[in-house]
Design goal:
By secondary structure, the protein is of the alpha/beta class. It folds into two domains: 196 residues, 3-Layer(aba) Sandwich (Rossmann fold), CATH 3.40.50; 199 residues, Dehydroquinate synthase-like - alpha domain (Dehydroquinate synthase-like, alpha domain). The chain has a six-stranded parallel sheet with strand order 1-10-7-4-2-3, sandwiched between helices. A hairpin with a 5-residue loop joins β8 and β9. α4 crosses α5. The radius of gyration is 20 Å and the shape is globular. Bound molecules: fe (ii) ion. Fe (ii) ion (FE2) binds next to α6. The site of fe (ii) ion has 4 residues, from α6.
């Protein structure tokens, strides 16, 4: 079975990357970079025929001026607002919100916020369309190499997304929901991709640059992992290189001048590209660890991405040495330097970025306790990222080594 086709058809096994045999998934989302999201949303809702919209947003996003403008533009169409999403989109919260959406006769969803807002909107759309509980529709993974995507067939309500972070969660057909047992359940359906994504650099000025920096490291990680994933294609590779370039230049510029809309736009565009990467390539051990640091230790996804990325890259150095040369170049290294020692050079570029933009770089500086690391390592082994990672992982031991190094 060719690697590329597995992503689309929902087949179980991926062999390895093959540049002459692949499938590229185009999600059909309209993406607009423009100051002033409210007008665009109004026009699009009219075009889609949406009359009863549920808005899903986070506590801080809901207090922004941009959110006020969007709410005003929605007018009578706005029939429900969910603004208290807990981090990592818990299962019971999704089910309560879906009940509310059903009782109000919702015919459209608008996600305004970070990754949790988008994931929650997609999860509500799944429950409304497929019925039952959200957990019934989750993909499953049994280590080391049995991954079974769950195919979702029903048409989904239209979603419009205005991202306020660089997580790129709104871009992809995938999403994560934290189950009652703490495990991250993963879902995949291209029909969940938004009809419209508005990237609004002016609205983004309200978002603290620290939030954009940490979530920007998540976006950077999508590009890095996409470049050496066992499931990727030449188109996702091209997008990943452009994403790396925009983020590696845009993030330091944004941190230096947080009030500059050009820098904000560059980060938003780079983040969007990173989402396009993981709509086709799959993330690996780095994201598997970050999912578990989030679900089992409560770390933010941007925070854990900021810390773990260089360690996960170093772990994959030998398995993906060839891919690291071009990656290092896209991260800003000279080709003549990168060619001799690509992994170290790429890792050093990421460490330098960590320092320049001031994101966390050690687990010991977060709220996680060291004694929790073995549990996080054991849980990481159950995440499907392990399956797509270039270096094979069969036990929790090497994962614990990565975590200890990051401590
Ligand atoms: Fe991510």
């Amino acid at each position: 079975m060719a690697a590329g086709s597995d992503a689309i058809a929902g087949i179980t096994h991926v062999t390895k990357f093959s540049p002459d045999d692949f499938t590229y998934l185009n999600t059909g989302t309209k993406v607009v970079m423009k100051a002033g999201a409210a007008d665009l949303i109004e026009t699009e809702l009219e075009r889609l025929g949406c009359r009863k919209v549920m808005v899903i947003t986070g506590p801080s996003a809901s207090r922004s001026a941009a959110f006020g403008e969007i709410s005003a533009a929605l007018g009578h169409r706005l029939v429900s607002v969910v603004s208290d999403i807990p981090a990592h989109t818990p299962e019971d919260f999704v089910m309560r919100s879906a009940d509310e959406a059903r009782s109000r006769g919702i015919d459209g969803l608008l996600a305004f916020g970070g990754g949790s807002a988008s994931d929650c909107a997609k999860a509500i759309a799944i429950v409304l369309a497929e019925g039952g509980s959200i957990s019934e529709h989750s993909s499953s993974f049994t280590p080391p190499d049995d991954f079974r995507p769950k195919e979702l067939h029903q048409p989904k309500l239209p979603i419009i997304a205005v991202p306020t972070t660089a997580s790129a969660a709104e871009v992809t057909p995938g999403l994560g929901v934290r189950g009652a047992d703490g495990r991250k359940m993963l879902f995949w359906d291209v029909k969940l991709c938004p009809r419209l994504i508005v990237l609004d650099p002016e609205a983004n000025l309200e978002v603290p640059s620290r939030v954009m920096a940490e979530t920007g490291m998540n976006a950077l990680a999508h590009c890095v992992e996409g470049l050496y994933s066992r499931l990727r294609n030449p188109i996702s590779e091209a997008i990943a290189h452009q994403g790396l370039k925009m983020l590696a230049s845009g993030l330091p510029a944004m941190v230096a001048e947080p009030d500059n809309t050009n820098h904000r736009a560059r980060v938003l565009a780079g983040a969007h590209l990173s989402g396009m990467v993981i709509s086709n390539a799959r993330v690996g051990i780095h994201h598997a660890i970050c999912h578990c640091l989030g679900a089992h230790a409560g770390l933010g996804h941007g925070e854990s991405n900021s810390i773990m990325l260089p360690y996960a890259m170093a772990f994959n150095g030998d398995a993906a040495a060839g891919e690291f040369v071009e990656m290092a170049v896209s991260l800003g290294a000279e080709r003549t330097t990168a060619i001799n020692n690509p992994t170290d050079i790429a890792v050093e570029r990421v460490r330098a970025l960590q320092r320049v933009i001031g994101v966390p770089s050690r687990l010991r500086d977060t709220k996680i306790e060291r004694r929790a690391l073995p549990h996080v390592a054991a849980q990481t082994l159950l995440d499907r990222g392990v399956f797509f990672n270039p270096r094979r992982v069969e036990t929790a031991e090497p994962i614990l080594d990565i975590l200890e190094a990051a401590w």
